[in-house]
């Protein structure tokens, strides 16, 4: 019965940061929902009954001021694999579990990486704009792109998403290099015909396309800066589908303006969206999408289902399938 379902806090249904109606329906199968706005309007009424905080697009933010309003909270369940927006030790210190949704985002994110790579290499966006332009009377030579098939791909971060990118790259007969904190097994390397680069510098020097697929941590913040960009080929393209903070954007602007690298294709920036006068938005050799790597209906539905599964388990005192125990 409806009154027997536990209560969960969400951002909103619809709106800029809210759930699509069909995604909210998935949550309603497991929870009675309270929107963030409703909580703030009457925290004394809603706060004590909320047992789960369900974060979608990082909202509602699990900040101390909000958590103090939720004395019965048992779990913060976040959509996606990244947890850089969560203070996991603080939340766990309150006796609240933390969960994310790894695995379900891998294919969509890997598809996005390859889409950005191909679109940048073959100037697909520029071609689209020229094809639609009413002034177009001929096809300009400026649409000449670079070859993807047979080129060398360097993957920084061979986790689940990096592995999926490598799988897709095999179809383009790409030579695959990867750099990771720990080397993958021989079996994994053989499955995708990938060669390990113990030093990041080696990967950067040899790659025609560099795809960044690491988690954002203190170690990876600013991982790609002036020095790293200077090691890349002047014909190389940087593709970032991880987090904007992994790349020093000021250094990237200079590298693109000076011809240190050929191009960049980014699904992530910092902040998101960029200020409208940011120089990255004005460069002709940059392709930017608004962090839509996981934005497919199938992936979004699976993410919400996984969030609900994690949160329901925590509320019932059962093991949480995707509990995050450390940052």
UniProtKB/TrEMBL annotation:
Top-rank taxon, per record: Eukaryota
GO MF terms here are: glyoxylate reductase (NADPH) activity; hydroxypyruvate reductase [NAD(P)H] activity; NAD binding
Residues forming the D-isomer specific 2-hydroxyacid dehydrogenase NAD-binding domain are 114-293
Residues annotated as domain D-isomer specific 2-hydroxyacid dehydrogenase catalytic: 23-325
Native source organism of the sequence: Seriola lalandi dorsalis
Put simply, this protein is called: Glyoxylate reductase/hydroxypyruvate reductase
Q: Which UniProt keywords apply?
A: Oxidoreductase
Q: What InterPro entries does the record tag this protein with?
A: D-isomer_2-hydroxyacid_DH (IPR050223), D-isomer_2_OHA_DH_cat_dom (IPR006139), D-isomer_DH_NAD-bd (IPR006140), NAD(P)-bd_dom_sf (IPR036291)
